[in-house]
What does this fold into?
Amino acid sequence: MTLNYEVIHGLDFTDAEIAGCLRRGGLLSLELEFSKKCNLRCVYCYASAGEALKNELTLSELKDIILQAKDVGARKIILLGGGEPLLYDHVREVVEFIRAHGLMQSLFTNGMLLTKGLAEFLFENHVSVVVKRNSNIPEVQNMLGGVKNCFEKIQAGFDRLAEAGYPSGGTQLGIQTVICRQNLKEIPEMWAWARERGVIPYFEIITNQGRAREFTKDLAVTNDELRDVFDKLREIDENRFGHKWSPHPTIASFTCKRHLYSCLVNSQGMIQPCTGIDMPVGDLRKEKLKDILGKSPVIKNLRNIYATIEGECQSCEFAVDCYGCRGNAYQTTGNYLASDPACWIRKNSLKAKKAAAGR
It folds into this structure.
């Protein structure tokens, strides 16, 4: 099977670049939160974002962290916000600072605050943008966003990005969509809609953490339903767009390898492996990034995940390339090295073993 690089890796790096990063023990990218302040109340939010926390990072601290990331080899800064990054007063200054130091950058936003001028500013500074868009049906988007009439504002922001020139000139545009009960039936249509426009569809399984825990029963989709929708997306890509990939969790068409080359800095300066593994492994207000990466046993285990992973994931047919979602494993079992409980391949493997044992 021929795998298309752009589809499989999206906003990430090549295998050769990742291998080099592992050898030197540094980073290729850093995910950075500004503040937990947000203008939405998404029912699935991993961070339960809404209000700013006490003692969040200052602008000077953010700049210092970006320079530390560059010093250990990072080539891209991913601006997550923690809440909504465009609410941050100094977002333009951060963007300009990152560009001035020769780093790539991606911004994850709900798009509601995008003006014509801001969209043009982002495009001119070569910022790839991913808009959090969960439905093309206003009532569904409003419900998932937790705020009335957010659909119209998100759509307006997306339109302003398109008017500014996205996606073109090597500057990517994507949509981030969580797969849940409310939007399950329209996921294939949304996928095709994105592909037709050159937009990267970043469609993922919900991690059961933060605010999502309060709405688990309402949002939940079974593993069999996830398998079916991933397979439909694969068929759309292969039959209509010429992209080939093998369906497996946790992001459709993507193979997550972030733990091999990235980490997250939350809005209070704590290092986490990713948004899903919200386990602090170091404090940047007390230690340098390089030192934390070098001594953290959690980071070490994740950098060696193909050897340290436990359970069925170890013997899976995709084990050479996939390690499931470490966030799902951690949030469900408390063990970030456990097999991914949301994986339908794992479930099918367990059924087969039970059937064989019963013969």
Q: What stands out?
A: The CA atoms of residues 142 and 148 lie 6 Å apart.
